[in-house]
UniProtKB/TrEMBL annotation:
Pfam families: GST_C_3 (PF14497), GST_N (PF02798). It comes from the Eukaryota. One of its GO terms (biological process) is glutathione metabolic process. One of its GO terms (molecular function) is glutathione transferase activity. Residues 82-201 form the GST C-terminal domain. Residues 2-80 form the GST N-terminal domain. This is Glutathione S-transferase.
Length: 201
């Protein structure tokens, strides 16, 4: 049987949460990073909507990053044990999109946009995570085991470090500690150290 394959561009972007889940689970998979643009039609034709990331595992083919993450979180027991768990975890995971949307909108608005991002837009979301993490004991966002929500919020915080905007996190000690403890997890530390340093985004 062939290994599952995750198709995405040569960057973190919308595939990174799925990569982290797969590595945390110890799953063997092909991390297919598309190096050419325009994307070759034979690869694009594998997808449902002509978009990436795209994930193929046995008889299932999925596009849309949240659908892929949900599938992987369920498969590897990172999505709680009941419907209430699952919708809470989903709501936390989706909050990361607010931060990313604010970042890219601000980035393309120039320095004035980034100033607003640093002082207002990013703290608006991060202070919510700070409260969630603190009230849940500091180690997890929901429950007492690692979930998809933890990985999603870690990835958003990690992107802030990656873009050298970590000064934004100075007022949020719980978020900084949360980020560091996931960075050091034995299941993930080797993957984090192996990530390409020339990612495009």
């Amino acid at each position: 049987m062939s290994l599952p394959t995750l198709y995405y561009l040569n960057g973190r972007g919308r595939a990174e949460v799925s990569r982290i889940i797969l590595n945390y689970a110890g799953a063997k998979f092909n991390d297919h990073r598309i190096q050419t643009y325009p994307i070759p039609e034979d690869i694009r034709n594998l997808t449902t909507f002509g978009q990436f990331p795209n994930y193929i595992d046995a008889d299932i083919q999925l596009s849309q990053s949240i659908a892929i993450e949900t599938y992987l979180a369920n498969k590897y027991n990172l999505n709680g044990s009941n419907q209430i768990d699952q919708v809470k975890i989903l709501s936390y995971a989706l909050s990361c999109g607010d931060l990313f949307q604010a970042y890219f909108t601000s980035k393309y608005a120039g320095e004035a946009g980034m100033t607003k991002f640093r002082s207002e837009l990013a703290p608006r979301t991060i202070k919510c995570w700070e409260k969630i993490i603190s009230e849940n004991g500091g180690k997890h966002t929901y429950g007492n085991t690692l979930t998809w929500a933890d990985i999603s919020i870690f990835n958003a915080l990690d992107y802030i470090y990656y873009m050298k905007e970590q000064s934004i996190l100075e007022p949020f000690p719980a978020c900084r500690q949360f980020h560091q403890q996931i960075l050091e997890l034995p299941q993930l530390s080797a993957y984090f150290k192996s990530r390409p340093t020339d990612d495009k985004f």
